[in-house]
Design brief:
heterotrimer, A: about 500 residues, Uridine Diphospho-n-acetylenolpyruvylglucosamine Reductase, domain 3, 4-stranded mixed beta sheet, B: alpha/beta, binds flavin-adenine dinucleotide
Chain lengths: ~500, ~425, ~475
């Protein structure tokens, strides 16, 4: 089977022959994205296409509808879990759409899907503004990440992805255009909701649609006031970082001798509304950090000794204080932090005033160095759920090793956002490339436990959660059928 | 060329996170110059990137994919600049560049590659020991009359094809520089092509002949140190020769220094001073082969322990290249003001010439160089300085095509002006 | 069985009415919207009863209009097509004060006064709009996305999860409140607004003016109540200067409540004795005042205020603002009173501040960015003048949102509701002002009255999509039909 000639020719005439291809190699290279589940079959797309404008995207989607060809969209293709599940799919790659505008005064940027975080950030720094990179990395698309996930430790102050979305330009699965928020009535992107009921509710839930509801071609995204000095990078190769002005920033690593103390301290930090980042640090991260430049062998050399010595009662907190607007604020925040730490019996240690993984770069993928593949159980709920659910995950993990590698359950972490109103829990688990399947089995068991325990899962399995969560899949199906009558937007 | 099991393992370890397309993210200074990979930046399809090629390598190996026109196009447009390789190795253990090189070799083995222009290089080399097909007897014609190389010396200047035939000014500057610094040096009476482009284009048999010949000639000369002014020769002598001989650099019968390393050392030892002012604002372009690809080669027989420990392997992660010496030199010359571009050191954007691209796809090479010229222009410098004849060549064309008004020099030319 | 009997079975006889006198009070509100009589009023006491009424209505194709507050300003509880008004005021319990997550779960009938006094017991406060009416429901303030006085919170998340009876009669919980066993037997605590699945029902139900379902409880954010406060009243002759200060202050993330208000509104809020104080205040206040409340945090409150004051001085110095007064002329002690005032409802015993001058008030409000507000002021004045409205009587309130990223711009036209000529003029003025503002890019994210059609005509693609969603959720169009574009 292949894409009908007429359809293909039309696609060529939309984007020009250079920017669409059905060459098997082009298509094969677009078969997988990162960390795709090993059990699912991924189809080679029937063709890959690279539009440069919203008009082109719209035209492509209309062709897909006319010929009932499924399409899947990518921006930088780092996502976990998007690929073609049907033959003769059109893979729409939006890298060429990379326009970027910044409204300095009113704190937002307008970005197309090809713009990645680090690039936006570099332009923002020059204007005394900032955004921040998701854990997966500064090389993820701002649009794809914000509409799908959008979490990173700086979310402690600046919130999760769904809160950063302003005006949205959206090509619906049937090729119709939907403009949301202030954009619905003018050319302005500054405000996100409405008019009336907020259709950003169609755009994403806890996570995004992964291509199943058409294509976002442009968004307004919030950016934040920042220090005026440009942040200079230093160090290089795998040890690079950006220097933070020490009069405005201070990192603390704090060891607590009981988990309860650490968690309570976290709640208290939220009530005091200080800091830019607050998160627990899984001990294994230290191992992975040391591994930079020495690889898997170097990691295990360290971990063989360090792992068994871990004290499971302890918990380390990492806190970045930020004197937003003044040096004195930093002094204030430090005093408050140290008060809290003292009250909960923690030992604070100041860490170098620089950043490796929040402002510009981030490298979640480096966890793969441990064995070659990782998977993670993630949830976004309260700090309390994070604590309870990670214990459940730990128990399940012990039943799965080997082949799941021994990390002594030291990869669980809690990263609260919005000053503690919500928190991410992540439990990473590693295996070798060959044992990737074991991670999938582990994940299935976690989902079952999550359902039973009344925890809230990210990317729930419809079969497990549908019946107990208000039959949400039925509602989704209805919505999708209404907006995607030909069932072309990433079906399957 | 990787052995098949290792090739497969390396390709399979890629998780397609796409970091291979970017400079070290901490070093991105603007959205305009925020990419690393020339083929990705120009052609955009994921096939045109390291992860695309690694994935193709797996599919080709498994018989699911042939060398289709686009695969050929992507594979041979790659400049082998190695940006992808070291970026990936920031986080993971994947021999990205070696997989791409091996994929090229497989393409050649199957008679599908290389490009006709690359075959022509091979024909030329077979005919006259240089890639241009120029008369081998004229190889030393560049030698200025005022320079008399030594018959016997510790130092041997390995010139390479480009400086011998196309950019004699570089060879001349190097020779004059050495002689004015009072350094006795030899040249090979019968230097052959380094084989750099033959290695790059998977024509390994002939490349090996070059290696064998040159190594023997160097050995016979009795030189202790080989100096090059050509980044490509440097990397080939230092890494490609041992690699093809399944040895490590340290086991080679010679050691290689780039002229900038040598001069930098002389300066540090107080044996050379640049006395003349060269009033000029310059920016420095790191050649890939002198920067991230310039690390010594470490021979390794694949041996793994679970989960993925490469036992006894020393990884080349790109941080031991020659980055500082050229900068030390430029800073050591009075009147020179060095203004860095946005993408420097291991993040340098490729000039576009490498990997056989300058030969087979001159338009794309010029496009890539044009990106660099634009970047150079934003520094406000008057000139781009580099350390490799092919960089100079293509950047020179680009600087003109982009109407930057900038001059392009090899660092040896600047040094010579400063010493005279 | 007649509908009334069925309703009686569900909510009890004393909670159903079709008495015309009772119905009359539900047929109109404080807005200019035309009155419409409902057929019944039902006053359920819990979700089950709401569920029963909605099912009954759906089965019989009878409109249902939910109403939670005891007062309505925008015509959005008037039963346009008759039917049942669901008066939810009996559902007035604070179901849960969740101090870990700094949230509170409230039923629709909970008022601001009620919430704030409960929150204060826990050293917390609800995130509150400007001086809400004492009968105003907390839940509907959030559902309607009324702007909050504290610009430091990211706006989109103040209403976190909810339970709603959907038009077809299903009881549905949004976000992570959907887990079985919530709230007592689940690990999840109902703090994630997204989902379940790939949709955010929360967002679809917000701003819907009762067209997408009946919310029976909602979990909303609170914030720690500052231990001490310092209030500043920074006077400005020009709005441009006031805005610059607000940009400067917000960029430094200083303070709690922050708003820009003109002398008319400020006088109305602070007047103790009408009308003499009012007239006097209007005379002595500068045209614009930036009100900024610095809040001492939970720990080291004095030190917090100190650095904020420093920052504020710096922000002011950059703009050559000479003084940062902490009091208002003629109103001794107001600085101590104000934070408390801003953190609760308008006192029950006093005439609502918007009505105190002339008995009624018509608002035109929309979102814009701060830098564009002076243009809007000018145009509003112009439109008012053209309609013969005295521009000195216009109240203006500008609420910076989210660190000054944008703002809520609210223009109030007090009028005498008993003067039919004036009412007619205001009607015209309202329409013209809204239309002009819209043409200039004012964004009406929650349209009411005559603005509704203007908005949905203009937002064509949005309207189409919205209608699709409505059709799926409410195929019989029983929920508040005739409202918005439905
Ligand atoms: C190792 C790893 C770590 C991660 N860590 C984090 C993390 O810390 N924080 C976080 O927020 N996320 C994280 N993620 C998930 C994250 O959402 C995605 O990886 C990332 O945003 C993908 O970005 P991308 O730019 O490559 O998007 P793509 O892969 O191109 O797209 C992501 C998804 O969005 C869809 N999509 C892309 N563009 C559009 C568009 N224009 N319109 C509609 N749909 C579109 C795609 O179909 C796909 O489903 C992680 C993922 C991985 C693999």
């Amino acid at each position: 089977m292949s894409i009908p000639r007429e359809a293909y020719q039309t696609l060529q005439s939309i984007v020009g022959t250079e920017w669409v291809s059905d060459d098997p190699a082009i298509c094969e290279a677009d078969r997988y994205c990162s960390l795709s589940s090993p059990s699912e079959e991924k189809r080679r797309p029937g063709c890959s296409i690279e539009p440069v404008s919203t008009e082109e995207v719209q035209a492509i989607v209309k062709v897909a509808n006319r010929y009932k060809l499924p399409f899947v969209v990518t921006s930088t293709y780092y996502s976990a879990g998007t690929y073609c599940r049907k033959d003769d799919s059109i893979l729409i790659d939006l890298k060429r759409m990379n326009k970027l505008e910044i409204d300095e005064e009113n704190l937002y940027a307008i970005v197309e899907p090809g713009v990645v975080f680090s690039a936006l950030q570099a332009d923002l720094f020059k204007r005394g503004l900032c955004t921040f990179v998701p854990g997966c990395g500064g090389h993820a698309s701002v649009v794809a990440n914000t509409v799908n996930m959008g979490d990173a430790p700086l979310g402690w102050r600046y919130g999760l992805g769904y809160q950063r979305l302003l005006g949205v330009e959206w090509v619906l699965p049937d090729g119709e255009m939907l403009k949301m928020g202030s954009l619905s009535m003018s050319k302005d992107y500054f405000w996100g909701e409405g008019p009336g009921p907020d259709l950003r509710g169609l755009l994403r839930g806890c996570a995004g649609h992964q291509s199943r509801m058409g294509i976002i071609t442009k968004i307004g995204v919030k950016v934040f006031p920042f220090v005026s000095e440009e942040l200079e990078p230093e160090g290089w190769a795998f040890r690079s970082f950006i220097k933070l002005p020490p009069n405005r920033f201070k990192w603390y690593n704090i060891r607590f001798y009981s988990r309860e103390d650490a968690i309570n301290a976290m709640f208290e930090l939220g009530r005091c509304e200080i800091a830019l980042v607050v998160m627990t640090v899984p001990p294994i991260f230290r191992g992975v950090a040391r591994t930079r430049g020495v690889g898997c062998g170097g990691f295990w050399e360290f971990w063989k000794d360090a792992g068994p010595k871990l004290n499971p009662k302890q918990m380390d907190l990492r806190v970045l204080l930020y004197g937003i607007g003044s040096d004195k604020r930093l002094e204030y925040e430090e005093k408050v932090l140290l008060d809290i730490v003292k009250e909960y019996g923690g030992s604070p240690r100041e860490a170098p005033c620089r950043d490796e993984t929040n402002f510009m770069a981030a490298d979640a993928i480096c966890a793969n160095v441990v064995g070659g593949r990782f998977s993670s159980e993630v949830s976004y709920e309260s700090i309390n759920q994070a604590v309870r659910y990670s214990k459940v995950v730990d128990k399940i993990t012990d039943e799965h090793r080997p082949p799941i590698l021994q990390e002594y359950n030291s990869t669980d972490w809690v990263c609260p956002y919005e000053l503690g109103y919500i928190a991410k829990m992540e439990c990473l688990r590693m295996a070798s490339v060959e044992d990737n399947y074991a991670l999938q089995e582990w994940k299935n068991d976690c989902q079952d436990a999550c359902a039973k325990g009344g925890a809230y899962a990210l990317v729930p399995d419809n079969k497990v959660f549908g019946p107990i969560w208000g039959n949400y899949p039925e509602k989704e199906d209805k919505i999708r059928a209404a907006f995607d009558p030909n069932h072309v937007s990433a079906p399957g | 060329m990787l052995k098949v099991e290792e090739y497969k393992h390396q390709a399979a370890t890629c998780v397609r996170c796409s970091y291979c397309k970017f400079p070290d993210l901490n070093y991105i200074k603007s959205s305009r110059f925020s990419r690393q990979c020339p083929i990705d930046t120009r052609y955009r399809f994921n096939l045109y990137s390291a992860h695309g090629l690694l994935h193709s390598a797996l599919a080709e190996l498994d018989g699911k994919l042939e060398f289709t026109p686009k695969l050929m196009d992507a594979l041979w447009h790659c400049t082998l600049c190695g940006g992808c390789d070291i970026r990936c190795k920031r986080n993971l253990d994947v021999e990205v560049l070696q997989v791409i090189e091996t994929l090229r070799c497989r393409c050649v083995e199957q008679g599908k590659g290389p490009m006709p222009e690359h075959k022509m290089l091979a024909d030329n080399v077979k005919k006259s020991h240089n890639i241009y097909g120029a008369d081998h007897k004229e190889r030393l014609n560049w030698m200025p009359e005022d320079v008399k190389p030594a018959q016997k010396a510790d130092i041997l200047y390995f010139v390479g094809d480009p400086s011998s035939y196309r950019h004699p000014e570089i060879a001349q500057a190097t020779a004059r520089l050495l002689s004015q610094a009072g350094v006795p040096f030899m040249v090979l009476a019968d230097e052959w092509s380094s084989g750099h482009e033959l290695f790059a284009t998977g024509q390994l048999e002939l490349a090996r002949e070059m290696a064998d010949h040159n190594i023997k000639a160097i050995k016979d000369s009795g030189a202790k140190k080989v100096i090059t002014s050509d980044a490509e020769c440097y990397k080939t002598l230092k890494a490609d020769y041992p690699k093809i001989l399944e040895k490590s650099t340290e086991d080679m019968p010679y050691s290689v220094l780039h002229i900038t390393e040598y001069v930098d050392q002389l300066m540090k030892d107080g044996k050379l001073k640049f006395r003349r002012r060269v009033p000029m604002k310059v920016t420095y372009h790191d050649p890939c082969n002198l920067g991230r690809l310039a690390e010594p080669w470490y021979h390794w027989e694949p041996k793994y322990e679970p989960p993925n420990i490469a036992v006894g392997k020393t990884w080349r992660r790109g941080y031991n290249g020659v980055y500082e010496p050229p900068r030390n030199i430029l800073k050591g010359i009075r009147g020179i003001e060095l203004i860095e571009m946005q993408r420097v050191w291991d993040n340098a954007w490729c000039c576009g010439y490498g990997g056989g691209v300058g030969t087979a796809f001159p338009d794309f090479a010029l496009w890539t160089a044009g990106e660099r010229a634009e970047e150079a222009r934003t520094t406000g410098a008057e000139a781009i300085v580099s350390c490799c004849p092919n960089c100079k060549d293509i950047l020179g064309q680009a600087a003109e095509a982009k109407k930057t008004g900038m001059k392009v020099y090899d660092i040896t030319e600047i040094m010579l002006r400063a010493i005279r | 069985m007649q509908i009334k009997e069925k309703l009686t079975k569900i909510v009890g006889a004393e909670n159903v009415s079709d008495d015309p006198e009772v119905l009359l009070s539900y047929s109109k509100d404080c807005s200019l919207s035309a009155p419409r009589m409902p057929n019944y009023v039902a006053r359920p006491k819990n979700t089950d009863e709401v569920h029963g009424v909605v099912r009954l209505a759906n089965e019989n194709g009878i409109p249902v209009v939910p109403a939670s507050s005891g007062i309505h300003f925008y015509g959005n509880t008037i039963p346009n097509l008759g039917g049942i008004v669901l008066d939810l005021r009996r559902m007035n319990k604070i179901l849960e004060v969740d101090l870990y997550n700094k949230m509170v779960r409230v039923e629709p009938g909970v008022t601001w006064g009620q919430l704030q006094s409960e929150a204060a017991k826990h050293k917390m406060m609800g995130l509150c709009p400007l001086l809400p009416h004492p009968l105003k429901s907390v839940l509907t303030s959030h559902l309607e996305r009324e702007p909050m006085l504290i610009p430091k919170f990211e706006y989109a998340g103040s209403l976190v999860t909810m339970e709603a009876v959907l038009p077809e009669g299903e009881v549905f919980r949004t976000g992570s409140a959907c887990v079985p066993g919530f709230p007592d037997k689940s690990m999840a605590e109902g703090v994630n607004p997204g989902g379940p699945g790939y949709l955010s029902y929360n967002w679809l139900i917000q701003g819907a003016q009762g067209t997408m379902g009946v919310v029976t409880w909602a979990k909303v954010k609170m914030a720690p109540r500052p231990k001490i406060d310092k209030t500043l009243f920074i006077p400005f002759e020009s709005l441009e200067d006031a805005i610059q200060l607000v940009y400067n202050v917000q960029r430094r993330m200083i303070g709690e409540e922050c708003l820009i208000i003109n002398s008319v509104n400020l006088a109305a809020i602070l007047t103790k004795k009408w009308p003499q104080d009012y007239n006097n205040l209007r005379r002595i206040l500068t045209p614009w005042t930036v009100i900024l409340v610095l809040g001492g945090g939970w720990r080291r409150p004095e030190e917090k205020i100190e650095y904020e004051e420093d920052g504020l001085r710096e922000a002011a110095a950059e703009l050559h603002i000479p003084a940062l007064p902490t009091s208002l002329p003629g109103l001794p002690g107001i600085e101590r009173e104000l934070p408390g005032m801003l953190r609760t409802a308008w006192p029950e015993k006093k005439t609502y501040w918007k009505f105190a001058d002339k008995g009624a008030c018509q608002d035109v409000f929309f979102y814009t960015t701060l830098n564009r507000t002076p243009d809007f002021v000018q145009v509003m004045n112009q439109v008012a003048a053209e309609n013969g409205y005295c521009i000195d009587d216009i109240g203006i309130y500008i609420q910076p949102m989210e660190y000054g990223r944008s703002c809520h711009f609210e223009c109030s036209f007090p009028y005498n509701p008993d003067d039919t000529d004036e009412v007619a003029m205001i009607r015209n003025l309202y329409a013209e002002a809204a239309e002009t503002a819209m043409d200039m890019g004012g964004y009406f994210s929650r349209p009411y009255g005559v603005v509704v059609d203007m908005v949905y005509d203009k937002a064509a693609s949005y309207t189409t999509a919205l209608k699709k969603v409505k059709q799926l959720l409410d195929p019989n169009n029983i929920m508040s039909p005739g409202r918005l574009c439905f």
